[in-house]
Write a structure and sequence with these properties.
The complex is a heterodimer. Chain A is α+β, with helices and mostly antiparallel strands. Chain A is built from six helices and seven strands, in the order H-E-E-E-E-E-E-E-H-H-H-H-H. Chain A is elongated. Chain B is mainly alpha-helical. A four-stranded mixed β-sheet of chain B has the order 1-3-4-2. The two termini of chain B are 26 Å apart. Classes of the chains: A alpha+beta, B mainly alpha. At the A-B interface, helix 3, helix 4, helix 5 and helix 6 of A face helix 4, helix 5, strand 2, strand 4 and helix 11 of B. The complex binds zinc ion (ZN).
């Protein structure tokens, strides 16, 4: 019984810590923040009627996803916004919070541990020390597929090409 | 997502390579001050059809590879671009070999080949590999060589995400982002007169080029090149019939990785923060993706790594 009690106690303490850390946020919905100024819509369509707006950096709650749209709740409104207007996870400004969360979950510093236990990494040092590996490059090249083979693979997955011009940076100013 | 330029230590040129590296840095710094014009002239001069050095070499040595013409840094052919990329990719594989799972490699090549067919350079011999590393990263080398780490692959959950990641790397190669960095470096070195003698004594021109480009190992491209690769990567994957949000999904995931984690250190060093990349991609997409309705994610056939 005793070990069990201790375990429960530990869980209790951990839970307390986490709830304190999460206190300003909702414990249920996924949180996020606005990547840009954008409109909220009453429904998940571009021409649905307006239901408020978002300003860049504003934190929000993600309620659900439908197609390319997310239903989100801000302090003032609830509405639909395009998927790409939202960054998932805690707002990036709260570095302190994310650091504290990392500590609470035991994730902080794992990188350090990994780097000293001989797990393969690709640090600059390791890249600089690397020697050309002829056998491996030949193996890599042996996997090369033809355009036709790529097409067959796409067909097997019912992938169909569509017309879509490359995105350009010039569109960035037009909202 | 990276320019990897790896020091080639396989030749016995280590010392000269180091020297060239130092000199290369010097030449860059010089360029930053007031020698720019002089260096430019030197570049022109060196590139003019000449050098006694290169030719003398070809005649004197007369061994196996002397029929190979000097590497044309000013305007490399497709074959030269591929040879250069092969050297870089081979070095990277020396640091982290391929995951020994032929089905995985075949799957990644299938997705990559199909996405590359939607790019502006469908004719390159595109090849893709998953390498043994727990880092989160992906690499492109000139001429169609693309690798991603097992650590990054593990973060993916569907084929559209893989297509987005590969699309970003394909775009770097299509736009010759890395090739241009190497070209600029080499032309400055040659122009400054630091490398011509060394060139004359070795017929492994390509491997030497990489070696002397080593001081910029794991170097970042400029931010605009990264944003461009994101926009094009998304575009290629979308044209290929995938749901357009694969790359953005991956950026969301990477953005939530602890910055202190070493597995992400090099990626964060060489690329703008995922949040900035997402914001830029979002701005560029605007309302363009509203019209894309039938894109597929294909999680059902996404290849699962063996444990
Ligand atoms: Zn990149």
């Amino acid at each position: 019984m005793k070990p069990k009690f201790l375990t429960l106690k530990q869980i209790f303490i951990t839970a307390c810590c986490i709830s304190i850390l999460y206190a300003p946020l909702s414990a249920i919905a996924e949180t996020g923040s606005a990547l840009k100024n954008d409109n909220l819509r009453a429904e998940p369509y571009a021409d649905a009627k307006l239901a408020g707006d978002l300003s860049r950096g504003e934190s929000l709650e993600i309620i659900k996803k439908q197609g390319a749209w997310l239903q989100v709740k801000t302090k003032k409104n609830t509405g639909w916004v395009r998927l790409l207007s939202v960054k998932r996870g805690a707002a990036s400004s709260s570095n302190q919070t994310s650091g504290a969360l990392a500590v609470a979950s035991g994730r902080a510093g794992t990188g350090q541990v990994v780097s000293t236990t001989g797990v393969r990494g690709l640090s600059e040092q390791e890249l600089k020390a690397a020697k050309f590996n002829e056998a491996e490059i030949k193996t890599l090249e042996s996997y090369t597929l033809s355009a036709e083979q790529g097409k067959q693979f796409a067909k097997a997955g019912n992938l169909e090409t569509i017309n879509f011009a490359n995105l350009t940076s010039s569109e960035s100013t037009a909202k | 997502m990276n320019l990897v330029t790896i020091k080639s230590t396989r030749s016995n040129l280590l010392i000269s390579t180091l020297l060239a590296s130092l000199l290369g840095l010097l030449s860059l710094q010089s360029a930053a001050f007031d020698l720019k014009g002089a260096l430019k002239d030197a570049v022109e001069k060196e590139l003019a059809p000449k050098p006694e050095s290169t030719q003398a070499n070809a005649n004197k040595d007369g061994n196996t590879t002397t029929n190979q013409p000097a590497f044309n840094w000013k305007n490399p052919s497709k074959e030269e671009e591929i040879a250069l990329g092969r050297e870089i990719a081979g070095n990277l594989l020396g640091a982290a070999p391929l995951v020994k799972d032929a089905a995985l490699q075949k799957y990644v090549n299938s997705v990559g080949r199909w996405v590359a067919s939607q790019s502006e350079r469908p004719d390159l011999p595109w090849r893709f590999g998953v390498i043994e590393s727990d880092d989160l990263n992906a690499f492109a080398a000139p001429g169609g060589y693309i690798m991603l780490t097992k650590g990054l692959y593990r973060k993916l959950s569907n084929e559209a995400q893989l297509a987005g990641v590969l699309g970003h790397e394909i775009a770097h190669i299509v736009e010759k982002h890395q090739l241009r960095v190497l070209q600029k470096q080499q032309l400055l070195n040659i122009g400054a007169g630091f490398l011509s003698d060394k060139y004359a004594k070795d017929n492994q021109l390509v491997s030497k080029a990489i070696g002397s480009g080593a001081e910029i190992s794991a170097r970042s491209l400029d931010k605009t090149a990264e944003y461009e690769a994101d926009r094009l990567g998304l575009s290629y994957a979308t044209r290929a019939g995938y749901e357009p949000y694969g790359l953005a999904d991956v950026l969301q995931t990477i953005g939530q990785t602890n910055k202190e984690d070493n597995s992400i250190a090099l990626l964060f060093k060489t690329h703008p923060h995922p949040d900035e990349r997402l914001a830029a991609l979002s701005d560029a997409a605007g309302i363009r993706l509203d019209a894309v309705k039938e894109g597929k994610t294909l999680e059902n056939r996404f290849y699962q790594l063996k444990k």
